[in-house]
Amino acid sequence: MGQRTRDTEFRRTTRAHVHAIDRLTSALIPAGGLGVVVVMLGICAYLAAMTLTLMRSGSAGPAVSTAVSIPGLDAPVRELITDDYGTLALVVTQGGAASTIDLSSGKVVETRELVPGGQLNAWSRVSRTGALAVGLSDGKVRLGRLAVESDFTDDAEAMSAAKDLAIDTAKVVTLGGHAVSLARTPLGQVRRTRITAELGDAVELSTGSGAVAGLDYKARGDGESLAVLRSDGTVLVNSVTRVKPLGGGPERVELQSVDAKIEDVATVGLPRWMWLTPDAKHVLAVWKNGTCRRWAASDSELKLAETVPLTSGGAEPTSTLVIGQSTLVVGDSKGVLSGWFPAQEPTAKTPDGLVMVRAHEIRTGDAPIVSLSASPRDRTVAAGDAKGRITLRHLTSHNRVADLQGEFTALGGVSIQPKFDGVVAMGSTAGGGTAIRRWSLDPGHAEASLDSLFGRTWYEGDPGPTFVWQATTTDESGEPKFCLTPLIWGTLKATVYTLLVAVPLALLAAVYTSEFVGRGSRTVIKPAIEMMASLPSVVLGFLAAIVIAPLVTDHLSGVLLAFVMVPLAVLSTAHLWTFLPRRTATASPAWVRFVLIGVMGAAGLGVGFAGGPAVERLLFRPNDAELLVMAGSVREVPAAERPTWLQGRAAVTGEEERRLRREGFWWRGGQVVVPTGSVSDAAVAARIAHDRLDEPSVRQWLNGVFGTSRPGWFVLAFPLGLIASSWLLARYVTPRLAALELTDNKRGGPWVESGKFLAGLGGASVIAALVAVALDRMGLDPRDSFLGTFQQRNTLVVALAMSVAVIPIIYTIADDALSAVPHHLRSASLAAGATPWQTAVRVVLPVAMSGVFSAVMVGLGRAVGETMVILMATGNTPIMSMSIFDGMRTLSANIAVELPEATVGSTHYRVLFLCGFVLFVVTFVVNTVAELVRSRYRKRSAAL
Amino acid sequence: MKAMKGVIGALVVGAAALAAGFGPEDKAATPVSKIDAAFPSYKATQGVSGNIKSVGSDTCNELMTYWLEGYKKFYPNVVTEMEGKGSATAPPALVENQSQFGPMSRPMKADEEDKFEKKFGYKPTGVRIAVDTLAVYVHKDNPIESLSFDDLQKVFSVKGPAEIKWGDLGLKGEWADKPVSLYGRNSASGTYTYFKEHALGKADYKPTVKEQPGSSGVVQGVATDKFGIGYSGIGYKTADVKVVPIAKKKGDKGVAPSFTTAMDGTYPIARFLMLYVNHKPGTELEPLRAEFIKMVYSKEGQEIVIKSGFDPVPANIAREDLKKVGITVGW
Questions:
Q1: What are phi and psi of A571, to 5 degrees?
Q2: What is the interface pTM, i.e. ipTM, of the complex?
Q3: Which terminus of chain B has a smaller tally of CB atoms within 10 A, N or C?
Q4: Measured between beta carbons, which residues in chain A are less than 8 angstroms from residue B224?
């Protein structure tokens, strides 16, 4: 009795530690869940914080103003430079007098007469190297250097002068007759900074006569170029190219000189400004009335290319500057800053095919812009106007960097400091004196704006705004191009094409294992497919690059045909199977069918590969006219007979070439031609045979060398044709057959069903052919969109390789979802006479829809984030094409490629975080939508 | 192996081993004769110990590994460590004093130097440790004889037509209407930047250049793509590809890359690999780093350069650069 009581007590009370565990877990589980949420939010916040900085504009500190007295400052200065550390400034007046100023006190600490005696007529200095060229009134040129030099010293005099300097402070002293800035570095060393000037002997110019009226000196990567304008209108460009052997030894120097003349100099006068673009390819002369002439410079000549008006509406240029590789910045009398550069234009009438385009226009205010200065680090331009306001704008993104109130009555000059960390300006002040003002500057991320990150941006040298991703530049003269749109495009493209391959395969596999094979086989097949997921994606990518890509390249027609032949072979076998005597068919064990499917799949693959060339011969072969053109047996079409839209084009795109073809013309080597002669002509035939021009080839068709759009449209329309014809069959034929009671006939059944199958295929072909002809008539060509020039690393290869990674994920979740459907539903369906396929598609699949849908969504998430397959198997080409034979660059692969090389904290670095953020947002949106859809499906099937 | 890029890391190296067939062909073949006779054999001294860490370019991975191994053989007390994720990882590590050496396959950028200078007051010092000669590869059956910089610009850069055919480069017959298939290194590599600056005149690459994660990837792509063209280090040449002679100017005769033509400057696309150190101007490096640099500029050190698929530097360059870091040598 007592025993029982204890037992009862034992059953009724829960032991303390169970309660403890219960309490612990009920605390831990929410804490864990909350932790996940917090971590997610944390990642999101971190990414947002990293990227939001991109949107911050630059900022400038308060003005530090010091009065300074230098004669001749009322006119714009020739040069205003500061050292790297903002301690010394040097200003050169129109007459050539150079004053070194201690920036902290405004005291003039040294004066030099760089060019003696009123001879100075033109001036140009390369800010990066300090190389200097001056043009004299007697027509001579002197080269030299005006450079800021820094070194570390233990010179006794300097050390004693610097002994009371604290860390990170500087002072200006006079040592050996020259102004020197001494600074104590963070490690206690003494750094000596001076501005040195030297000028070589005067050099007589070989061409032209009269004073040097304009001068521009540019340092290229491998030498220097000097453009000179003389008062008789002669323009000449002298270039020096140096080759410094890596192995040492003397430098090899090449000299080049080209010239041109402004013939009408008597009527138009001399230009006010003359520039040589930094790439030394163009000479730009700008007159006061806004006319600009451009000469194209080559190794052998200087050729007048075009004359363009730079301003309109009564404005006149008041200040100009060249930056980047070839951009001319013009500030005009109405306060508008505009950016011009030569760009390629197919209809250009100029000898070099380029025309000057006004790519950028920024309004800075309403006062005339009198002084311009370029940032040494990017495309930021500082424009000082007549009211003394200084506006810093990024020329490409139009971003505001800073607006500075100079409060000058007349601005003498403005200069951005060499490290882009400050701005210096000088000019006359209200009190009648002159002052030099300095602002510290944090430029922010001026090249990034929402527009430049996601929209089209007009970059130097382009005929119009474009979407470009090319983040890596060679130096400061290049522009990094951060447009995420091609990357987002690439990510979506890779995902869509992968899912097109993976989803049907994975879902059919899931239906197969959950509905058609026994439990025993399923326990083997399922882990086997799941094993596929354990293949590292880097290995998959590697295999795709070195096995799949060359295979697809070599057997393109076969691979494409296999896509049709494999399902066709399996389906045909299924139809043949119905012809077997029912007893044999039902008595055969499941593995026979399984093996048969495998064998027939393989057979389809074989037939595809073997039959590819035959199909190629049928559909993708050049006709006689095309052969004649390829063999060069052509006649040029006179201009009058050419299509009007072509005008005087020197080059056409592939799309235009095909349009021309449809109109009966060919584009060959820059000329419009039509075929003449006959392929049976011996010479032509020999040529065709020798170059194997008549070989049928899908690749050549894709490349657009020959053929109409019809075969392409036929192939693309075939799946649609299948859907349409099976719908038509189900809608119109099956009910009639059923009415005739033919389908139930045990003997006739297989014949009828197979007949339907063949009719469906035939119908699909007819529909596809009709669609192809119709689309071709409409002038559409798939080679402009879904298909295109064949690239070895293409989306097809990626889709195949990535499917291997995605299929197991979709398969395993979908299979679980299908298997979880209650068995009584299946039994009821089968008992009512439905076939297993009908049961699977009409009963099981709809019930399991929420699970199947999430399987696809998880697969999609995997495809969006996949990195290594894309990185290794594609060319990472940031292009926006729909073509399945082109590659792509995805957000994730882009991060993997570029993050290790991006300078920490730079715009590039932050833009890569933005890529991550965009990826995060895409995944988040997809998952949220998926969850919403899934919960709807779940509600529907919840009643079961 | 002058292996592949950053994040891909060890996995890729493993995968790359799978493709041993595509690896560099004739790396260690011969030429001790390439090494300047002036380089002495390295002699170990006394009292060198401590930790050495190198953080930087992955192009220099193999080179640094061999050098650090060699250094440890001379000085068993030295502890070495190496990270090679990319050139851009070198400057921050030097600034934070986390590394002693920063190998880079490109010169440091201005904003990277700024950060260094802000902390130390002087600029980092780079010494030139090896010569990397770039080659332009085409498929072995390609009949092309020579390409000028103008041609390369037309082929690889946006200055040329978007769709370029081999016929545009002068090939006839079956090649004439075949599109050129472009291969290149990825944008993070120094090779990419160097080729853009020197061969393409700073013009942007076409977006259709297929960027490969490693130099061997470029060669492999060209080897299996009959109409392909690509650029990468000369050390990766295989029997399936052909190296195209390069002319600087249109109409000049193309020059084939070799040690001789790279050294005398007639072959125009060869560059130095750099090793950056934090050297306080006016002082001498402490023995740990000084001896390492001396070893780099020795017969043994330069043999390692050849072993890694690069070309050795001439002795006069070595003398110049040793002086930059305050080392005077007797040779």
A1: -65, -40
A2: 0.86
A3: C
A4: 546, 549-550, 553, 792
Q: Is the pLDDT of residue A5 over 80?
A: no
Q: Do A903 and B111 touch (CB under 8 A)?
A: yes
Q: Is A346 exposed, middle or buried (0-12, 13-18, 19+ CB in 10 A)?
A: middle
Q: Is the confidence at residue A518, as pLDDT, over 90?
A: no
The two counts, helices (H) then strands (E), for chain B are 11, 11
Q: Is A221 within 8 Å of B265 when comparing Cβ atoms?
A: no
Q: Name the pTM for this structure.
A: 0.89
Specify the 3-state DSSP secondary structure of A52: helix
Partners of residue A878 in chain B, C-beta under 8 Å:
207
User: Which residue(s) pair with A202 in the sheet?
Assistant: A142
- Residue B20, chain A, CB below 8 Å: the answer is no
The answer for B 146-185 residues in CB contact with A (under 8 A) is 158-159, 161-163, 167, 173-174, 176-179, 181-183
pLDDT at A225: 93
d(CA A696, CA B143): 23
Judged by CB atoms closer than 8 Å, whether chains meet at B188 and A474 is answered as: no
Which chain A positions have a beta carbon within 8 Å of B279's beta carbon? none
Instruction: Give the closest of A185, A344, A902 to B88, CB-based.
Output: A902
| A33 has pLDDT over 90 | yes
pLDDT tens-place values along chain B, 331 residues long: 333 333 333 333 333 333 333 334 444 444 446 788 889 999 888 888 899 999 988 888 889 999 999 999 999 999 999 988 878 889 989 999 999 999 998 888 888 898 899 889 899 999 999 999 999 999 999 999 999 999 999 999 998 888 888 988 988 878 888 899 999 988 877 888 899 989 998 899 999 999 988 888 899 999 999 999 999 988 888 999 999 999 988 888 999 998 889 888 899 999 899 999 999 988 888 999 999 999 999 999 999 999 888 999 988 889 999 999 988 888 7
Which of A222, A377, A469, A474 should we substitute to test contact with B (largest number of B Cβ atoms within 10 Å)?
A474
A337: β partners: A331, A362
- The answer to whether residue B91 neighbours chain A at the CB level (below 8 Å) is yes
Scanning B75-109, the segments in alpha helix (DSSP H) are: 90-95
pLDDT per position as a tens digit, A79-134 = 999 998 889 999 998 888 899 999 888 888 999 888 877 788 999 999 888 999 99
| Best residue of A149, A155, A192, A246 to probe chain B, by most B CBs closer than 10 Å | A246
Taking 3-state DSSP, the helix, strand and coil percentages for chain A, each rounded to the nearest 5, stand at 45, 25, 30
Ramachandran assignment for A186, one of left (phi > 0), alpha (psi -120 to 50 degrees), beta (any other): alpha
- Measured in angstroms, the CA of B48 and the nearest CA of chain A are apart by 25
Name which of A152, A473, A901 is nearest B122 (Cβ-Cβ): A152
Query: Long-range contacts for A119-122 (Cβ within 8 Å, ≥24 apart)?
Result: A120/A78, A120/A94, A120/A95, A120/A96, A121/A211, A121/A212, A121/A213, A122/A212, A122/A213, A122/A214, A122/A215, A122/A228, A122/A229
A542 Cβ contact partners less than 8 Å away, ≥ 6 residues apart: A872, B12, B15, B16, B18, B19
